[in-house]
Each structure stands twice: as C-alpha cells, then as structure tokens.
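INFO batch 0412 | record 1 of 1 | parsing
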Amino acid sequence: MYVTGRSTREKRSEYDRPETVEETAELVTAAGGTGIAVAVDHLVPEQVRALVARIDAEQGRLDVLVNDIWGGEGMFAWDSPVWEHDLDKGLRLLRLGVETHAVTSHVALPLLVRRPGGLVVEMTDGTLEYNSAHYRNSFFYDLVKSSVLRMAFALGHELGPRGSTAVALTPGWMRSEIMLEAFGVTEATWREATRKVPHFAISESPFYVGRAVAALAADPEVSRFNGQSLSSGGLAQVYGFTDRDGSRPDCWRYVVEVQDPGRPADTTGYR
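INFO prediction complete | emitting tokens
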C-alpha cells in the first residue's frame, strides 16, 4: 500500500499536524501489510505522475485508489456566510478538497482501468442523502464535501463500462487525532468527552472506515455499489465488520433520528 501526503518527518505541511506518511505506512506494515510512504502534493500533477509511474514500475497495476485528500481543518469558519468568510482560505479549501481529487483521478485512473475490477473510493463527510438536505458548516465546506459525492457519481459512469467501480464513502463522527485533541481526550479515554458533548457517544475510530474500505475491496460484487454514496455504519450492516471495540456505530442514522431532532443522547440500537 502506497501512503501519500505532504507531511513527512522532515517537513510538515501547512496543516501543521505531527502525523506523517511514514507513520501511517508503518501502521499498515504493523497490521500485516506493506506500507510504502511517498511524499506527494496532490495539487502538483508532476508529483502525482511520478507516484503513478513508480506504482506502475514496481507493481504493474493499481487495484484500489482511496482519494482521501483534505487538509482543510482550520480554514473554514463555522456558520460564516460566504461574504464574511476569508476568501483566500475558502478558495484554498476548494483546491485542497476538490482539485486534488480531480488531479489524482486524471493521472491514476489509466493505470487502474488497465485491469478489470479496480475500485475508487472517494472519501468525504456526509452521505448524499444527508448533505442534500443539510447545510454543512460553511459555503466552502459544504461545496467541497458535496462535490466529492458528485465525483463518485460521475466516476461511476466513466468507470462502470470499463469494468471498474467508484463509490463515495463517509465515516461517521470519527475520532481522528485532531478530534481527540479538540476534546482533550485520547482514544483510551474518549468516553470522557461525552460529559461535554453527549452525542459523541456515537463516535467511531478511524479503523472502522478503514475496515469498510477493506470490505469493499474484497467484495467480488462491489460493482453493485457503483456511483453510490456509502457510510462506514451502513456498510458494517452489509459486511458484518465492527469497530475495534466490537461495536457497529451507525452514525448517520443516529444523527437523523436522535441528534438532529434534539433527542437525548442514547446510542441504544445505533452501535
């Protein structure tokens, strides 16, 4: 597995996070795979072309492309109308969250479609059903996350006739490193955050959506999902995988049925 991004042990990106591509590659190897870290700025086509050429030379194929490119935390203003939002940051969000995906697909898909059965997973925040009916934080954030959903739909039309599959996939309320820091907890102590935000009880670890990707990649009939919007919780019901604690949080159903209607936090029947 090739792990790419701009943050390395030698240099952090503007995101200024301590996590690195090397660390992620090591996690892949520790889990039984082979992690290969490659520093790539997916806004630079030449760097993406070099990555794909390397994959072609070393593997001769590309079976799964996970377009999980973001880096926009800290650039969008919650509930800020477009005319009050910092324009430079907003346009940067569009580049980071949309243009990167388009560049990568343009460069990498010729290798993926060389063999039938390829899979593209466009990672976003929110399902098509939810995002179509709800405002997502700000004009720019909303536009980015909805655009990625549409990318999967469009790629489904282009890849399906060529024997490959594209889907959009969203985690639920994911306990990423940045989220845990915001709540002042760790993965081991995350439940303490529910004292301040009770609905955080529906949250999930990053492994959960990773297991969703693995289940899709291993499914010989994955084409039945071509062009669709999927969620980690929804796929757990299909494939039977769990989060690391053995639970199956179904965040987006919970959000619609419990959180948004203002009901008391209660994950009974949702994880």
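INFO post-check: The first helix runs from residue 21 to 30.
INFO record closed
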